[in-house]
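ARCHIVE CARD
CATEGORY: sequence design from structure
SOURCE FIELD: tokenized fold
FIELD CONTENT:
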């Protein structure tokens, strides 16, 4: 056994001209890059990245669609292309599913250095060392460890400001869960230095959202870059990614994300609702299941102010549909990282309590 500890943490560049540092940062990894991402992400980012690398030694040899779902099958498809094989590095553009597909491909299928270029600020996927993978039909599959985050994250705030504001909105919902899940998972445990550091940093996944969230969303609606939008982008991407890296898989998530994965078995949820949006609802369920009713009182006004979901109907879910949802939630690995046994009754009681809470507020 090695008698040392080490930790990789996210590195990033942020701002409307963030891509200008690509030649400097990426040049030591080679000259040929393949760009992989969603159709809209590649279209939005292409003019910026082409301008940034013009006249440099960096060349993008191809633009590849990632397949539309964060699946192992799509990661293998990406890694099997000639462009991928011939590239020195991978530039991953888009949101969580596109980036996780690339991270899985580069870490597990056929190793290559990967750089992430988030075109939305909806999750910590650009900066995390995990790949959350789904089956081709969209049902949650498993979380895979990539061992280290992307080599660098390039956050172009102008691109994010021009993206639909609902992604930034969903990112706020996903980010908020990080604070409450890590705090719950670490409760009563003997934690290491880096885990304790991550849990303490988790408060920064909550406070900036309250301070800057509403203004950032308003600016995004107007396609305007601002300090508030940058603060929320950094919180959603870098803070959460750093916390995830520090706390490790056993403290990273639990009830909120487990229930989120459970809800993805319902087609209307998977099709019509974003990951962070679903997680935000599940965070309220976590708080009630854990008897932190005072936190629900604290968060509920913010949820209402920015229209995050607070009841089943907001996610197009009926109570009679919860059977397979709860079954799936209790089957995923994340649910084990709670300092007590989570039962089906505990979750259904918390959901029922939240339904009643909505009626009285």
């Amino acid at each position: 056994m090695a008698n040392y500890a080490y930790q990789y943490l996210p590195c990033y560049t942020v701002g409307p001209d963030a891509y200008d540092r690509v030649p400097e940062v990426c040049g030591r990894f080679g000259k040929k890059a393949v760009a992989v991402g969603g159709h809209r992400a590649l279209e939005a980012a292409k003019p910026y990245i082409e301008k940034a690398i013009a006249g440099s030694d960096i060349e993008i040899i191809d633009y590849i669609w990632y397949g539309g779902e964060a699946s192992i099958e799509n990661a293998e498809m990406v890694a099997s292309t000639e462009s991928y094989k011939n590239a020195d590095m991978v530039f991953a553009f888009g949101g969580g599913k596109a980036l996780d597909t690339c991270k899985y491909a580069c870490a597990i299928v056929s190793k290559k250095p990967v750089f992430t270029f988030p075109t939305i600020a909806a999750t910590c996927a650009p900066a995390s060392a995990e790949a959350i993978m789904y089956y081709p039909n969209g049902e949650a599959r498993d979380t895979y460890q990539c061992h280290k985050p992307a080599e660098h994250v390039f956050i172009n705030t102008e691109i994010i400001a021009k993206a639909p504001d609902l992604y930034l909105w969903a990112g706020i919902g996903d980010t908020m869960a990080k604070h409450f899940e890590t705090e719950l998972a670490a409760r009563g445990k003997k934690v290491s230095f880096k885990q304790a550091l991550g849990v303490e940093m988790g408060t920064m996944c909550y406070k900036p959202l309250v301070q800057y969230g509403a203004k950032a969303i308003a600016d995004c609606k107007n396609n305007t870059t601002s300090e508030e939008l940058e603060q929320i982008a950094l919180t959603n991407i870098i803070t959460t990614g750093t916390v995830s890296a520090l706390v490790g898989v056993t403290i990273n998530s639990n009830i909120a994300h487990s229930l989120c994965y459970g809800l993805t078995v319902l087609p209307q949820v998977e099709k019509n609702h974003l990951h962070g949006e679903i997680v935000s609802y599940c965070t309220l369920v976590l708080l009630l299941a854990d008897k932190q009713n005072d936190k629900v009182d604290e968060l509920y006004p913010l949820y209402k102010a920015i229209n995050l979901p607070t009841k089943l109907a907001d996610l197009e879910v009926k109570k009679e549909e919860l059977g397979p949802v709860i079954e799936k939630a209790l089957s995923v690995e994340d649910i084990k990282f709670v300092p007590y046994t989570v039962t089906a009754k505990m979750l259904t009681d918390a959901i029922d309590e939240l339904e009643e809470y909505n009626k009285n507020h």
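CARD ANNOTATION: The two ends are 55 Å apart (CA to CA). The mean pLDDT is 94.
SHELF: design records, drawer C
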